[in-house]
Design a protein that fits this description.
about 300 residues; alpha/beta; Rossmann fold; Alpha-Beta Plaits; 2 domains; 6-stranded mixed beta sheet; 4-stranded antiparallel beta sheet; globular
Amino acid sequence: MLSAKNLYKKFASTVAVDNVSFTVEQGKVFGLLGPNGAGKTTTIRMLLNIITPDSGEVYYDNLPITEETKNHVGYLPEERGLYRKGIVIETILYFAALKNMESAVAKRTAMQWLERFKLEDRAKSKIEELSKGNQQKVQFIISVLHDPAVLVLDEPFSGFDPVNQELLKEMIIEQKAHGKAIIFSTHQMEQAEKLCDAICVINRGKVVLEGSLGDVKKKFGKNSLHVEFRGDNSVFNALPNVDHADVYNNYAELRMKDGQEINAVAKYLVDKVSLQKLELVEPSLHSIFIDVVGAQE
């Protein structure tokens, strides 16, 4: 278990993180969410003791985190952190040695992971010869190789195409099933909604929303409609009884005004477009994020 208690960090006149607290449980994926520049990466660096908070504490298993306990944490940074001229397998084994892994075990485990990512034939390639997505796979392998109890993933899907996003999602779910406490930091709400058990949304350094994903959705569950249609999406610009509309080419997510029924919307749309589907649903994390963060802009 990893906990942050009242973390605060200021750079010059800018408060980057302002009194942020949360706890990540074993066997759970915790979403540390927010727009770019919200303070997510600064928070993560304080969790890992890369930078020191001006005030506040970080605990691992209810004890202050130390250099020794840091070996129980795996970290996938947002930015590429690999020496471009380095050889793939040598780079992985170097980081394994930093985590005190026995050499033969590290090499065997590294090759198993490379095979899973279909990179075994690139083991002796230079990092710079890999695509951005494959470089990200190598960084993921480095983060999980020593079988950490806590896994910190900062924008892990960066550089991945849809196929590899699904592969990585499976890997994260597998790590969760093995009892890992996972911090998943992103501004991609669709991925967060698929993976997270609980979330903490940070904006301008402050926590603006937190809780289990189910509780958060229940809190914002205001008569949301999912509509699939064929026709001109401009008809959604002036819908009766609708407070907010997220409209795309062939579907829309609508949030009804408080106390309003959906009948008026249905009657209006049936004359304007070809309705394929209309159902009452819980709001997406994307729409909740827009509501909460957008209200502060």
